Amino acid sequence: MITTKNITKTLLSLLFVFILSTPQVFSQTYNLNNQASKLTVSGTSSLHDWDIDAEQQKGQIVLNTSNELKIEKLTLDVTSESLKSGKGGMDKNTYKALNTGKHKSITFQLTEVKDIKSSGNDNYKTEVVGNLTIAGVTKKMTLNLDMAVSSSKVTLNGKKAFKMTDFGITPPKALLGTITTGDEITITFSTVLNK
């Protein structure tokens, strides 16, 4: 004769086995929202300062929220020929300098998270290291990010200056070399990633 005690015991055993066999998923994946994100490359020339905006980018961040917040993955991919200044001649010189016929994308791939510090209200000051590849040349780059996290969205804001020649790029020239571009550029970004 089966007693209520035995049925309860069996059900509790089954429930325990079910809980143990179910993986605890704490990782959350967010994908870059191209429409909401902005990335601008700024520089100087002998004539005037200039800006170029990226019209096509994609990427992903994976956060682990099991105990403290961790970044498991961060990637960014900008289509080289989606960089637009509004001036056809300048864009053409940019694509030539980046050798876009051969190198279709500018990419960033996370390799290390150095620091994540909470600044309150789900905002974090983050220092990450990753491989930045431009025109086929890869360099290790440290980025300081302001990161805001919600259940459905992650926003990354930051700025990074470096030299084009670090990536083997000769700063573009125009009008038979009478206009020269400064070597240092600054990338400013506000990247929105949605779940």
TrEMBL record:
InterPro entries in alphabetical order: Lipid/polyisoprenoid-bd_YceI, TTHA0802/YceI-like_sf
Coiled-coil residue spans: none
Lipid/polyisoprenoid-binding YceI-like domain ranges (all copies): 29-194
Signal recorded as keyword: yes
Keyword rRNA processing belongs to the record: no
UniProt keyword terms in alphabetical order: Signal
Signal sequence extent: 1-27
Cited Gene3D superfamilies: Lipid/polyisoprenoid-binding, YceI-like
Name this protein carries in UniProt: YceI family protein
Organism annotation: Gelidibacter gilvus
